[in-house]
Amino acid sequence: MRALTEHPVVIAGGGPTGLMLAGELSLAGVDVAIVERRLSQELPGSRAGGLHSRTLEILDQRGIADRFLSEGQVAQVQRFGASLLDISDFPTRHNYGLGLWQNHIERILAGWVGELEVTIHRGHEVTGLVQDDTGVDVRLADGRSLRAQYLVGCDGGRSVVRKAAGIDFRGWDPSTSALIAEVEVAEEPELGTRRDEVGIHSLGKVEYSIRDDGEIVWGEGPVRVMVTEQHPGPAGEPTLRDLSEALIAVYGTDYGVHSPTWISRFTDMTRQAAAYREGRVLLAGDAAHVHSPAGGQGLNTGVQDAVNLGWKLAQVVKETSPESLLDTYHGERHPVAARVLRNTMAQVVLNGPGARIDALRDAISELLSMDEPRKRFAAMLSGLDIHYDLGEGHPLLGRRMPDLDLVTSDGPLRVFSLLHDVRPVLLNLGERGDFDIAPWAGRVQSIDAECAGPWELPVLGAVAAPAAVLIRPDGYVAWVGGRTQQHELAEALTDWFGRPTAAQ
Ligand SMILES: Cc1cc2nc3c(=O)[nH]c(=O)nc-3n(C[C@H](O)[C@H](O)[C@H](O)COP(=O)(O)OP(=O)(O)OC[C@H]3O[C@@H](n4cnc5c(N)ncnc54)[C@H](O)[C@@H]3O)c2cc1C
Predict the structure, then answer these.
(1) pLDDT for 206-220, tens place per residue?
(2) d(Cα 213, Cα 118) in Å, to the nearest integer?
(3) pTM
């Protein structure tokens, strides 16, 4: 078998997760290739509807949030079941969500990746893999193969990589399904959401804008249909006739639907990979977890998987960290998606039909109108409450570093701007020169700064300002302490960023 070429990391699948991971690895100096089945980044339909606050922060950490914000609709979009959860009082620069269809998200991500050194083999399909002690042979449909030290399956819910690696995909079969489509209509329908004895349905336009008061202003062009089916639909691509019948069953008319650009079916199948790593094969995004789209969390979770994995894999490939660092990827991200699976299952029930569920929905809505429950659920859905278990300590440990305004000897700057090139930061807010991290110089930035103003975290509120924090490249805090804890700092630096090198 001819090898196409060799790269330290090969990514199967160039959807949102694969693109984000490729960008992260490339910024961290790793030669990475994507193998993507599609010939171009074009998506036939719009798919996911937008980005949540923490994903916007993650993109901001790389200096690319504005590319997305300038094309989308900033709004309070977060829902749990029927309850809209406002996060405008959250302590983040992105105290909102962004309405932006997945085809645009992918186009913008692909544009960013195109500026970096990433090889993309388009029009190639991964069909299998064979791994040995030193790497993985990635088999392609045309009979060729690629050699990699590590293969990451970002190849979606039906992941070939997951299956070939023998990783279990445990969970629950669908209990409900819906048809989703973009179509022209002969008769203009009433746009909006409807509930009935089958479930929830919605008709809207692909083009829309959101006014400051939250009202949606529909644009021209195709109608976006989402209609729940009476029974979970069969596997396989639905037809225009299926769509027409489903519309008639709910609305009594199909509005003369014609000229579909996209018809698809989604379900609430809920499954998660038992392991995110099997030797030299890793999984991220939908390849690792699938669930109902309720709450719009799938793409967001995948992009954040990529940002957790990228810098770790880069360090392992560059041999600054041992392979065991990769186990923290499963350790940290598996619980996050497990929680998404659970909250989407709950939302599917809340969106269901029947008087008893109506009563449950009312009860939950009442609970979520109270401040504390609203904050907790909104922080969960937005990803702002993610807390990796890095042990006992200051509340910041394992949580996202807030994007504080700093004053340094070079002038004012924002914390996130220090993370643009995927490098960790030791931020010293105490006496200048309190810490000597020369044995990690080149790997870890050391910044002396002053920070005015309170340290406030979502849900937790104000926390004591630390003397120093060690921030990982994904923006999570790896260590919090002061000048008397140099030993603990050295341990954290070694654990996360590799052994010290002799001072030059
Ligand atoms: C109706 C609907 C609404 C949604 N709304 C939201 C939302 O509002 N917010 C949200 O966060 N999520 C939402 N989601 C979920 C979101 O679309 C997915 O979670 C997201 O696309 C996952 O990204 P991914 O890159 O992991 O996988 P995918 O997007 O599935 O990308 C996988 C890529 O791999 C390629 N590929 C697959 N197999 C192979 C192979 N063997 N060889 C080579 N290439 C391969 C595919 O062509 C594709 O490009 C929604 C989903 C649906 C269906």
Answers:
(1) 999 888 777 888 998
(2) 42
(3) 0.96
